[in-house]
Amino acid sequence: MERLLRRFRRGGGDPNATRIRRRQTLVRHLSNRISLINLALFVAAYVWMLVIPFPNLGRFTYIDENALQPGQVTAYFDWGNVHTADLYLADLESLRDLNSTSAERASYITTQFKRLGILAASQAYEFDASVGSLKGVNAYAAFPSPRSPGTEAIVISASWLSRSGNDTLNLRGIATILALADFLKKYSFWAKDLVFVVGDGYLDGMQAWLNAYHSTPQSNLRAEELTLTSGVIWTALHIDYPGHSFSHLGIFHEGVNGRLSNQDLVNSFERIARSSGVPTVLYDHIDWRDNAASRAELEIIPLWVPSFLRDNHDVQTYAFQAKNVLRHVGYQARGKPSGVHGLFHQFRIDSFTIFAVPATGPHGFHAIGRIVESTLRTANNLLERLHASFFFYILTGPYRFLKIGLFLPSAILISVAVMFSGLKIWTDAGWVPDDSPTDSKTNSPQEQWTTRKRPVLSVLRVMVLTHIIGALVFWLITRSVVINSQLLLALIFLGVSTLPIVFVTLFPSPSAAVPTSSVLKAFSLCLASTVISTTAVLNFSLAALLAILLGVPMTSARRIDSVPIKVAVSLVYTSLAFGWLIWPQGELRSAIWNWDILGVWTAPFISIVYAPLMLQSSIVCLS
Amino acid sequence: MSKLSSSLGFVVPAISTCKFLAYLTGIPDILIHDQQLISPLTSYFRLQEGLYLFQNGIDPYDGGSFHHSPLLLALFDTMIPTSRLVAYALWCLCDAFAALALVKIWRSRQRVAQSSRDALIASAYLLNPYLLLPSLALSTSTVDNALTLLSLSYACQGNASASLLLLALLVHMSPSSILILAPIILLLLSDPLSHLASPKLFPTGLDRAVPLLFTFIIYMGVLTVASCIAAGNLLWISRSWGSNLMLPDLTPNPGMWWYFFTEMFDHFRPFFLMVFSVHLLIYIAPICIKFQYDPLYAGFLLLGVLGTFKAYPTLADPGLFLSMIALFPEVYPYFRHPIVTALLHIHSALLLPLFNRLWLTQGTGNANFFYASTLVFACSNGAALIDCIWAGLRIAVGEAKEGDHVVQE
Fold it and tell me: Which of A96, A128, A575, B269 has the most CB within a 10 Å radius?
């Protein structure tokens, strides 16, 4: 033992000297290989991201909350109720054909609720957003629970417009709601109030209704107060049934600002639908192997992939799951709700959209009615809110998912690599090779290094200024004059493109010996890493996107000597930072609309956090 | 205040005016319930509630919600109107006085009438987000911080009576601040100049501390009697002072205590309450002995201990410690890992509100999330404290020669 210890403390006597020597060796080894370590981290992270849709990663979904007991009840919704729904549908279709106004529609719906003996009311609203104004009338009804004092509620909702776009109407969804109201009120087992909401428009109506329900004022919204209210809403089901019939039921679960609904609720619905004989899909992605008609979906595998791979089952599954994951990232990273259900998430309500994927058959009102009934009874079983940490997941298919530990590290690894490069640059900036002639006594074979001062305050000033400029740009693009004019946006872009040059001339390095550009790069890398790792818990998709956008570009930004090249490179960085001002146009408009109406913070986040970080890289190149 | 350098004369009023305007924009209404900025012991909301009960003839200490000192109760009941505007002005004034006190401490430490660093030091206090936000949330920790700095500043000038009176007031409002009694007495017996680079034994005998201690005890006694008269009974002692020891209210805060005691079985509670309270006290002697040549630095370190480990901290407590770093530029070159500490603080400053929101607003996280972020925060405060202790000791060794290393045995 003693011998072993002695060998361990090689170099003999003083344990402190040994310790210092050992630490120096370790630090030297690490810092010599830091670029290798960073490369390994980057590669590992990107590979990890590519592996996320892998068929064998993740696991089958399960129900965590035992109280839910999905599919354990007999559904009573029958063909008589289907007939009722058909009658409502006929009325709604005639309203559509008459080009009726919002108020007329709302009054029809409230009348129908009242004829069922349920208290109903309507609510007019008007949004005044920078992208344009919107108005409409919502109709809603509250059925008090026969078994409890009405402190909790479940919402069943539909919107006038369907999520499938092109002004498709959700008439069958609304007819389902009315038929369900007629049917559900006959039963006494409801322990929670049932609130039926038919929102006007697509997202706007429900946003106005929810704001009024929770008494959260929104400055650009003028809405009537609700005359009927109920308890705390725990669960909300949104029904979207645009076609004549449907083949699959699709699940949309992403909410505003990337919040997901509790997975237990989605899983329960999935179980119930499947056991009722209706296949489920994620979004409207039908697996082509289930359905010969959707063979076209195979197109997602590029044509250059050799056919033996294209026909391989695992490759096909990978491609299919990758499509699901990409769609999820598209919604979550933008902070955009994937349907009307997403608005409920702002108020801590678990909800998802049941989307009836349009097809020629075989399912209709009968299937959706029974499945919604059964899902409502499952939600009715809850004695406490769905809790557990079942909010952090990626669904790769309707019944396969990844837990947080299987995807979070991919973004974190990039953030670690970025942090390492930042710290390395910070340390390096503090040392400079000593040029002064060394006297013969200390003339060692090693290079001599001396420390130098690093300009912390001036660099911080530049960083703060870039973020303030980001905030200014954000303020500008939320003015309706600016957002509606292509020309002004292009002018703003031109303005910000000159910023790096302005910064370099306004805050020049006092001398070549002062490492301003290195310190700026070090600080902005550290800040970028912090932003990526803290965002990861809130919104993984956004963090992953930031990691991809910021990671390699920011670490590879460096001071360039040749003037034309450095101007060109810095322009590339500026376009990466603010390019979204001019392209793609629709994206910016929808982001601003989402911020104005729904309070999605992607637009401010991109302009106040992301763009200034890129701008700092651009300044690094130029200085 | 004596002659202020022109930039200081501009900076403090300018920032205070901006802050007063910020108050008027409605920001306090958003922040006033934020768990990171106010604790049950420092909440302005609870103070108003207690005041309302008091003015309506109900003993505010009878319920479980009021933990403020009776002195505050008496002050707001008799002298200061309870309108919001007055409170805004009062909080702005407190911060301005605290910033000026910090500048005074700096001047007496440097033994100069004014310096070019004055404005920087005042802004380091006024613009520190950890101090600015609690102040915007009308947390009474702003008042506590002002009292701390004023007491230290009088101690630096050798004004024993004023310093000890302010300290007694401070201890009345926040009893855990008793930690800085020892360094203040040492400061009164010696001088505030920086002796970090040249350690020596404490210049005078400690017998001179006895009258100072007596003065402090007499002030405490007078204030206690005044409190008893104001409150009308003795219930306030257990509800106001006692809550620092008994932790009756487990509302989450950025400190280390609440989560432990939500998880604790009742029969272990008294033992661990004792451990946690005594833990605060054990730092006094070692730090005061080690830094006997520079009691101001010792007091600064103890404020760091307090910010990390006290029972009901808000961001203002570690914020005071961080802003006071501005007083000791001589130790900066000796910090061991300043950038790591700074990054830890940025991480925790982002994670604290984020996880609080995930747990309480968004509902996707749970208490463990927020607790994890308070642990990160404690780590960053600990890192800052250790960095300052290391640098304060390391400076005495002097500039290292090429290839030399300083180790701690």
Answer: A575
